[in-house]
Write a structure and sequence with these properties.
The protein is globular, with a radius of gyration of 18 Å. Helix 5 crosses helix 7. It has a single domain (6-236), classed as 3-Layer(aba) Sandwich (L-fuculose-1-phosphate Aldolase). 41% of the residues lie in helices and 16% in strands. The protein has helices at residues 6-23, 80-93, 104-110, 145-155, 175-197, 207-218, 222-238; strands at residues 33-38, 41-47, 63-66, 71-73, 97-101, 132-135, 160-163, 167-172. It is an alpha+beta fold.
Length: 246
């Protein structure tokens, strides 16, 4: 697959993630946001604009926002909640990629009292061992820095945070890693909900083995890159023009 300069590639990768998420049903209306740090400039990040369905976006539609929440490049508007969540995480945690969704099965867990991802029962969920934080408070729609700061605190040094009554955030060092984690997170939550719906008790795997499996999965991160490249090939086949730059 053709490679571009870092900024153009970042725009293409962010568009691919948004469109692929829409194809998987991980989006919700025209809400939620994916953001990606601008290559070479950690004070700015790319983000999807307000009012567009993820499936219609192209690299040319993406916006550039600075550390003050000001739009510095782009032809559309940016929803305020995008900066209060994404901006605070990019700046406070120096995360390169921040994916926020209300995807169904993961969000379902945030509605439950004490609802958490069980990393001790499902092999795929073991990849998240020691990597998940929980924000057990709810302060309404994120329209203040205080909301973003509380989410940052709950995220801590993790890559995933479940937000009570709200949804989830997945962070990563690059889009391929973050999107792969987002995809598997929803799958794991779906399997957990299905298993619990039987009324049976989940059989737990010893923590020592879970920790070892987590390391094994992390050592195979090439799979994340291969997955993301495959998704872009599917977009090439099924959604011609998705990557146009003008």
């Amino acid at each position: 697959m053709k490679r571009f300069d870092p900024v153009t590639q970042a725009r293409i990768d962010l568009t691919a993630a948004l469109r692929s998420a829409a194809r998987m049903g991980l989006n919700e209306g025209v809400c939620n946001h994916f953001s990606l740090e601008m290559p070479g400039d950690p004070t700015k990040f790319l983000i999807n604009p307000q009012g567009f369905h993820w499936s219609e976006l192209t690299p040319a539609d993406l916006m550039v926002v600075d550390e003050n929440g000001e739009v510095v490049e782009g032809k559309h508007k940016v929803e305020p909640t995008a900066f209060f969540i994404h901006g605070r995480i990019h700046l406070g945690k120096r995360k390169k990629c921040v994916l926020h969704t209300h995807m169904p099965f993961a969000t379902a867990l945030t509605l439950l009292e004490g609802g958490e991802l069980d990393v001790f029962a499902n092999q795929s969920a073991m990849r998240y061992y020691g990597r998940v934080g929980y924000d057990h408070e709810y302060g309404g729609v994120a329209l203040a820095n205080e909301e973003g700061d509380r989410i940052c605190k709950a995220l801590g040094d993790k890559n995933v945070v479940f937000m009570q009554h709200h949804g989830i955030i997945v962070c990563g060092d690059n889009m391929a890693y973050a999107f792969d984690d987002l995809y598997y997170l929803e799958r794991c939550c779906m399997v957990q909900v299905l298993a619990k719906s039987t009324g049976g008790k989940l059989k737990q795997v010893p923590e020592k083995l879970v920790a070892e499996v987590a390391k094994q999965i992390e050592s195979e991160r090439q799979q994340s890159i291969l997955h993301f490249e495959a998704l872009k090939r599917l977009l090439d086949r099924n959604e011609p023009g998705w990557s146009r730059l003008t």
